[in-house]
Amino acid sequence: MKGKAWRPLRAGDIVDVVAPGYATKPEAVDRARQFLLSWGLVPRIPPNLMAPHFLHANDDDSRLILLKKALLAEDSAAVWCLRGGYGSNRLLPGLARMKAPRRAKLLVGISDITSLHLFLSQEWGWATLHGPLLERMSPGRLAPRDHREMRDLVFGRVKQVRFQNLKPMNEAARRLRRVKAPVIGGNLTVLQSTLGTPWQLRPRGHFLFVEDIGERGYRVDRIFEQFRQAGLFRGCRGLLLGDFTAADEPDGRNLVPLVFRRWAEDLEIPVFRGLPAGHGKVQRPVPFATSAVLSGGGQGVLTIESGGAKR
Hints:
Layout: E1 14-18, H1 26-38, E2 42-44, H2 60-72, E3 76-81, H3 92-96, E4 106-109, H4 114-122, E5 128-130, H5 144-154, E6 160-168, H6 171-175, E7 179-180, E8 183-187, H7 188-193, E9 207-213, H8 217-229, E10 238-245, H9 256-266, E11 271-273, E12 286-288, E13 292-295, E14 300-305
Parallel strand pairs: 1-2, 1-3, 3-4, 4-5, 8-9, 9-10, 10-11
Antiparallel strand pairs: 5-12, 6-11, 6-14, 7-13, 13-14
Helix pairs in contact: 8-9
């Protein structure tokens, strides 16, 4: 499935800032505003974006109203998420009751925002961008080259993202020549939370990209086992492993690489590791629901179309 393209940004475009999950500090909101202004964009940050709440940036109704306004706004070109955390999945029933907007627009975010990526791509047919949250775009938090890549991508100066030197982890990956399919996925734990819902992850015919933070080896293994028992690996064109950070055991070991090795041996689909995307220091963008080509052999290469419409 190839998603509806979003319009690349231009100087002077309005960007709607949303906080569908956790709250953040006022100074982080100010830094997000200054970042967008530095790119020549016009940040639209609702005064009631955040309110006192024991868990989220605001209550469910308020977060849903603000998200819907951002998605429906005809005068803005993008919806950029401020922070992840937890809470986006609580808004999906409300999104399901609304009619899809007439045109697709750019959605950017990672982590908890996986819920929105999955809904917009599977239910509305949009192409979206798994990319750094606004909190992360503050000066000094990403390398200049990563800033440039994001800027070139969202402004339509480049049309593809290319990942090289991916490590094949099983024989299917080493034998792979060239496969074309869209990429879907995001945060592994959030993807697990979709199982059994109307908006369940459907990776058949797609490359499945996963990443996570703070999940020990047994937890990652348990999620993969649930995916297998739910039949999610059937028809999947390949498994792409991003960053899995802060995954140490109490004794300091990291068992996640061993978990990946076992699953690479068990699965019949190609498994590659080494995508520098997720919660690590490098957070390269991964376009979802766009045309992508994966080639294997000694070193895997993944080329993904940006999802932006032609100018």
